[in-house]
Design goal:
Number of helices of chain B: 37
Radius of gyration of chain A: 13 Å
Oligomer: heterodimer
Number of strands of chain A: 5
Helix content of chain A: 25-40%
Number of helices of chain A: 4
Strand content of chain A: 25-35%
Distance between the termini of chain B: 39 Å
CATH topology of chain A: Transcription Regulator spoIIAA
Strand order of the largest sheet of chain A: 1-2-3-4-5
Number of domains of chain A: 1
Structural class of chain B: mainly alpha
Structural class of chain A: alpha/beta
CATH superfamily of chain A: STAS domain
Helix content of chain B: over 70%
CATH superfamily of the largest domain in chain B: MFS general substrate transporter like domains
Distance between the termini of chain A: 31 Å
Shape of chain B: elongated
Number of domains of chain B: 3
Largest sheet of chain B: none
Largest sheet of chain A: 5 strands, mixed
CATH architecture of the largest domain in chain B: Up-down Bundle
């Protein structure tokens, strides 16, 4: 898994590539990367899932932990460009009740502005 | 910018901020210029009436005023809908200028009906102009600004009263008609001041605010409201009803006191000296409240809060009433009237206006018209009705005064009771002005979704391509939990050609898309569960599998990882006392996070005490922390003591301690909260953030858990002190333009520190109120920040308020640091 962060319109976008799973460990977890941004005072986080192939339960835990940390500081964590399959999984597991999910990045960025 | 001379002088007397100087002075003079003529008109009115009609006929004047005021308010309420506020105020001033001048001319004719008409006119004059003034103040300021400045504006009115009273006292009875011309002249000046105020207001409103304002005005202007609507507004709102009741009692009491006082004056002061006496008396009685208003009102309200300030006036009148009942004399008449007059125009007026501020503007104006214009005169009517008994029964004046005192005492007791209710409801009204911007997300997530189920679905999908055994086990879990819904079946069958499910899985996967029990090989869930359980508990199964487990455990090849995962998961399906369950410890120690994750899950199912240390060790790694936390949470209160041991051991790995704090928060029992609080006081502060967050989580999820107030308060004091030091360091480093890196980190430290202080406050004060206050202080508008501070002002104890306010009030960094330095010198023991 590879995660790159960039900033656009006051939103930190994490471009995630590969699979967010326990067996695909990196030095720093997604949650830690999000926390670093929160420590820097950033409050708008967008996870770009365009190149995410799969997530396991550890990955879900990471995304939820990131969501909780962001939300508890009054911030917003949203998701963009999720694959159809992942979206169905998110629906079945009711993750769609918690996360705001957008078809593309621009729509997601607009939503922060509207908030 | 604001360092000019008038600002410097003003800021020494009152807490005025840059940008507030002009409007404060304008409002000061506006109030001066309407109160000065009134205090010229009032002695003339009183003297004329007492000379021509006598004190006995005063109840008639009170009653008629109340009646006519009812009609007038109905007319005025319709007028205020049709006419813009600035036009209405200026037109009213012009109306009173013209009529005052006409009264000046008519007085010379000595018409017999004149004192009564003039009495009623003077009452309408004061009610309209004063209400308009306070509506304007309400329009311009929020509660925090008003609290700081209200003393100053109020003192303008009192000073106007002193000026008018002294002038009347000096010119006396023989110049009554000329006095009215002077009043007319002063009123003319006020028109210009009011005009300047509206020019200032228009300039201040930014484009954004203007849009908001326009919306408000549209909202206000749209419905056709009249007197009935004003009355209904008050009737439907509990807080406004309380305010109305308080105002009614205040004015009934005031009327009774006025009558007591005038009855004594009627007997003791000669007719020709009455105008002079009233003039000097009013002036003298306003000098004291002028200083009270200017120097004490704001600081008294700020220091002791509305709850205390609201009780001062009735309690002083209660003492005075008892005094005049015991010694009915001129001195006591002057004391009771003086107290009533001075406090009603200083403290009481200010407090009453503050009570209106949190009400939404839509209701406020309607309520003010009904309460301040109609109800206070109506209350005088009630007072007059009570006094009518003295026209019917001829009693000695001293007895009359004593009987009235007894009635006053009864009213004051009811008044004090209502005041307590009003102050409580005021806090609720302020709360309603603030919105909760976010909830704790862990609670939100727990409420909206089933995390265990979510993970299970993901694990099932993940295992589909990895191992048919794991896949089958997950399906079995879904069946056991009655969660193999049609949606899940559909989801699992997605690209089902990728996996070849054997054994158990095949039972559910009849075809490409069919995973349900529609096949001929249908096995009921109960039977399946029972069979699996029975097989696993067979001695022979345990014996055969033991060899397999041993083999898997020693195999260090990459392929063995999946086998280990399967074995670790299988143990969770066995009885906790089965021989194979003893192997779980070894799987827990496995280096592969995948294997240990399944072992953790099984440990959570078996809940054996011997696995607890291994699970706690798993809190260290971010890759197993969440699973280990969830597993330990399932042990519940059985592990709180063990977790507390790790948590309290400062030599222990810090990540592990942080994890233990998080698990205790998830367990959330009273015992867990007590352990967390204890460590918070004993620890060096390395894991304060995690400890405080854990306590906050318990507070938000378990309202029944109690927190030790003393310990929490001590910690709050410690954190505030630390916050002061960070702030001072930040300021100093900025000044010296050095330690660039240090000053970069300090704002972050300040944010975290303030968040922790508020989380701790939330443990011992209403959690939602504290959260609302914090969130609005951090992310709210200027207005909502002011309401947030106001909420804290009415919620926190004085000692805590004193040290918290320099951190949350709208201050410049320089001023904030100055206050922190001052507080650090004699930091209070909380």
């Amino acid at each position: 898994m590879e995660i790159n962060a960039r900033e656009k319109s006051n939103v930190i976008i994490f471009d995630i590539e590969g699979e967010i799973r326990r067996s695909d460990l990196t030095d720093v977890t997604l949650h830690q990367l999000v926390k670093d941004q929160l420590d820097d005072g950033k409050r708008n986080i967008l996870l770009n899932f365009r190149n995410v192939e799969f997530i396991d339960s550890f990955g879900v835990g990471e995304i939820l932990a990131s969501y909780i940390s962001t939300h508890n500081l009054g911030g917003k964590l949203k998701i963009a460009k999720i694959s159809k399959k992942l979206y169905i999984i998110f629906q079945v597991t009711m993750l769609t009740k918690v996360f705001e999910i957008f078809d593309d990045e621009d729509m997601a960025l607009d939503s922060y502005f509207k908030d | 910018m604001a360092k000019n001379r008038p600002y410097k002088i003003l800021s020494r007397i009152i807490e005025i901020k840059p940008g507030e100087k002009n409007i404060s002075l304008l409002l000061f003079f506006y109030f001066f210029l309407i109160m000065a003529p009134y205090y010229i008109i009032k002695p003339v009115r009183d003297a004329q009436y007492l000379i021509v009609k006598g004190s006995k006929e005063l109840p008639i004047a009170y009653l008629l005023t109340a009646l006519i005021m009812g009609f007038f308010v109905a007319f005025y309420s319709k007028l205020q809908i049709k006419v813009q506020r600035h036009v209405l105020i200026i037109s009213s001033l012009i109306f009173f200028i013209v009529t005052c001048f006409l009264f000046g001319l008519l007085f010379r004719k000595g018409l017999p009906w004149m004192p009564l008409v003039f009495w009623i006119w003077a009452n309408i004059f004061i009610v309209v102009l004063v209400t308009q003034f306070w509506i304007l103040v309400n329009d311009i300021f929020n509660p925090r600004e008003a609290k700081r400045l209200i003393g100053f504006f109020g003192s303008g009115g009192i000073l106007g009263g002193v000026f008018g009273g002294l002038l009347t006292g000096f010119l006396g009875f023989n110049f009554s008609d000329y006095l009215l011309f002077i009043a007319t002249g002063i009123l003319i000046i006020s028109v210009f001041i009011v005009n300047y105020i509206f020019i200032w207001q228009r300039k201040r409103i930014s484009t954004e605010d203007r849009a908001e304002k326009k919306d408000d005005e549209n909202k206000e202007g749209a419905p056709k409201v009249g007197f009935k609507d004003c009355f209904d507004t008050v009737r439907r709102n509990y807080y406004l009803k309380l305010l109305a009741a308080v105002v009614t009692i205040t004015f009934v009491v005031s009327t009774l006191i006025d009558w007591q006082y005038k009855s004594v004056i009627d007997i003791k002061i000669h007719a020709n000296d009455k105008t002079t006496f009233f003039g000097y008396f009013h002036a003298a009685m306003l000098v004291f409240p002028f200083f009270v208003q200017l120097l004490m009102t704001s600081s008294l309200i700020k220091r002791f809060g509305i709850r205390f300030a609201i009780m001062v006036y009735p309690l002083i009148l209660l003492i005075c009433s008892l005094g005049i009942a015991a010694y009915p004399s001129l001195i006591f008449a002057v004391i009771i009237k003086g107290s009533d007059k001075s406090l009603s125009f200083s403290l009481n007026q200010s407090v009453r206006e503050l009570l209106y501020i949190p009400i939404s503007s839509e209701f406020k104006y309607k309520a003010k018209i009904f309460i301040d214009m109609f109800l206070n005169r109506f209350a005088k009517g009630i007072g007059a009705l009570i006094l009518l008994i003295f026209i019917i029964f001829h009693l000695d004046w001293q007895v009359r005064v004593q009987v009235v005192s007894a009635i006053i005492v009864v009213f004051i007791l009811a008044w004090a009771f209502l005041n307590l209710k009003v102050s409580k409801e005021y806090t609720n009204t302020v709360k309603q002005k603030l919105e909760m911007k976010w909830e704790r997300a862990d609670r939100l997530v727990a409420e909206k979704m089933d995390l265990d189920y979510t993970k299970l679905v993901f694990d099932t999908l993940e295992s589909k391509n990895r191992s048919s055994v794991l896949y089958a086990m997950h399906l079995f879990d879904l069946i056991k939990q009655d969660k193999l819904t049609s949606e899940v079946k559909k989801l699992i069958s997605y690209k089902s050609d990728e996996v070849r499910v054997s054994s158990l899985g095949a039972l559910f996967e009849g075809g490409e898309t069919s995973l349900g029990p529609e096949t001929d090989d249908y096995i009921s869930e109960e039977v399946l569960e029972k069979e699996v359980k029975e097989i696993m508990s067979l001695d022979v199964y345990q014996k055969v599998m033991e060899d397999y487990f041993e083999k898997v455990l020693v195999d260090e090849s990459k392929e063995a990882e999946t086998a280990k995962m399967e074995a670790a998961k299988a143990i969770g399906m066995m009885e906790s006392h089965s021989p194979l369950a003893q192997k779980l410890e070894e799987f827990l120690r496995d280096e592969s996070p995948e294997v240990s994750r399944y072992a953790i899950e099984s440990a959570a199912r078996l809940r054996k005490r011997e696995h607890v240390p291994a699970l706690i060790q798993k809190l260290h790694s971010p890759f197993t922390r969440e699973d280990a936390s969830a597993a330990l949470e399932k042990y519940g209160s059985r592990v709180t003591g063990t977790l507390a041991d790790y948590l309290g051991d400062s030599e222990e790995d810090i990540e592990l301690r942080k994890g233990a704090a998080s698990v205790l928060a998830r367990i959330g029992t009273q015992e867990a909260a007590d352990f967390l609080t204890w460590v918070l006081t004993e620890d060096k502060g390395d894991i304060d953030i995690e400890l405080i967050d854990a306590l906050d989580r318990i507070r938000s999820e378990r309202p029944d858990v109690q927190f030790q107030e003393g310990i929490v308060t001590t910690k709050i004091a410690e954190l505030i002190k630390k916050h002061f030091h960070i702030l001072i360091d930040f300021y100093d480093s900025k000044l010296m333009e050095k330690k660039q890196k240090m000053s970069e980190n300090l704002p972050k430290d300040l944010t975290v520190s303030l968040m922790n202080i508020f989380k701790l406050l939330g443990l011992i004060y209403p959690h939602e109120d504290i959260n609302k206050a914090y969130q609005n202080i951090k992310t709210g508008t200027k207005e909502s920040m002011a309401y947030a501070v106001e909420l804290l002002d009415n919620t926190l104890q004085k000692e805590i308020k004193d040290v918290i306010f320099p951190l949350v009030e709208e201050l410049s960094l320089e001023e904030r640091v100055k206050r922190c330095r001052g507080l650090l010198k004699g930091f209070p023991i909380l």
